[in-house]
Amino acid sequence: xxxxxxxxxRATFDELYRNKYRPMVRLAYVLVDTTEDAEQVVxxxxxxxxxxxxxxxxxxGYLRTCVVNGGRKxxxxxxxxRRTPDAPADPTDLxxxxxxxxxRRLPADQRALVALRYxxxxxxxxxxxxxxxxxxxVKSRLHRAISTLRKEIS
Length: 154
Known about the structure:
Rna Polymerase Sigma Factor, Chain: A; 7 helices
């Protein structure tokens, strides 16, 4: 690879990073609940994209898939670590967002669907491609997630 080819590839990757970093952090935040963990998931995803950038047909789609999978991986790790109940909440911390709290209580797969639909504004077909599942499965699980949220929020 010549120096100019490397520069052209790097410029394209840099553009992807500038355009997609913040939206991917928001997506990861919905999945993993903390800014620090969300940023870590996104950084890991960008590393994966960078390593394969020249062979990926759709870098933005690949990045989104890496973020969702990284969020799932982090949640699995948390489940192993959190075998004991959570410590009581600090009574002085009264800030909450009822909608976010309801989304956080969803199972990880439903949370990913909601995040991709409403945070990333993807279509059913795009969500199906991102999560590698049939479009019918996306529709039914998203319907269940929205029904659960409606019950909890109302």
